[in-house]
Amino acid sequence: MLRLQNVESGYGESRVLRGVNLEVLPGQVTCLMGRNGVGKTTLMKTLMGLLRTRAGSVHWNGRELASLEPAKRAKAGIGYVPQGREIFPQLTVKENLLLGLEMSMSGVRTFPEDVLEMFPVLASMYGRQGGDLSGGQQQQLAFARALASRPGLLLLDEPTEGIQPSIVEDIRRVILKLKAQGTISILLVEQSIDFVRSAADYIYVMDKGVMTLQGTPHDLDMSQFEYHLSV
Ligand SMILES: Nc1ncnc2c1ncn2[C@@H]1O[C@H](COP(=O)(O)OP(=O)(O)OP(=O)(O)O)[C@@H](O)[C@H]1O
To answer: pTM to 2 decimals?
Structure first.
């Protein structure tokens, strides 16, 4: 399980996260929502160690991660799909996927079939350059690459942003499949209330660097969301 307690982080002089508390339970999909600029990506980067944890603790399966560098967090089983995909456009789909295995704890060096089966479009474009794929296909590539390392915790930063509806549906299906398998915990930043309601076990809403609302989809009603997410 992941547990953040009173986490603070930011850029230079500016403090963005102001005492964040959050838990991600094993096998669950936990969604993080909030208006633009409230600190969701900052939280993901802090979790991954790309930004320093200035105060507080980040516990993952009983281990304190707050001072670990990003590569060690990946080895500890944390996978990250950043906003904007960040695949390698000059490398083929296959090469991009194999890079995910570099992070693998298992020592496996052939790409796992079950991950490829979740993204049939990638199997059909195996030899193509990453840069030739559509935005939605690149998103699936980044997702598959992260899954290849067999993470225990997957951080997904707005995987459906700017993606065509059919691929949003594909991504939703993969998340629901992973949830049904129950072997991975997911922290998902997502703006669509419908998407979150269909996928989340637990929801946090953030504002100005702190959590302002939290609960199961069952606990929270639409008017609360609208109040906290409206501009
Ligand atoms: N590299 C940076 N240097 C300085 N300030 C930054 C940097 N990146 C983000 N910020 C600031 O930190 C705050 C939080 O940004 P962050 O990207 O975490 O928000 P977000 O909730 O993910 O927003 P969005 O939904 O637009 O992605 C914002 O005020 C933003 O301007």
So the answer is: 0.94
Q: Where would I find the beta strands (DSSP E) of the chain?
A: 2-11, 14-24, 29-33, 55-60, 63-64, 78-81, 153-157, 185-189, 202-207, 210-215
What DSSP character marks residue 206? E
Count CA atoms within 13 Å of residue 2 on its CB side. 30
CATH of residue 147: 3.40.50.300
Number of domains, the chain? 1
**DSSP state letter for 24:** E
152 CA to centre of ligand 1 in angstroms: 26
The reported pLDDT for the residue numbered 103 is 63
Enclosing domain of residue 95: 2-229
ipTM over 0.90: yes
Pocket test for ligand 1, best of 14, 35, 41 (most atoms within 8 A of CB): 41
Residue type, 210: V
**Which residues face 81 on adjacent strands?**
156
Residues with CB under 6 A from ligand 1: 11, 14, 16, 34, 36-42
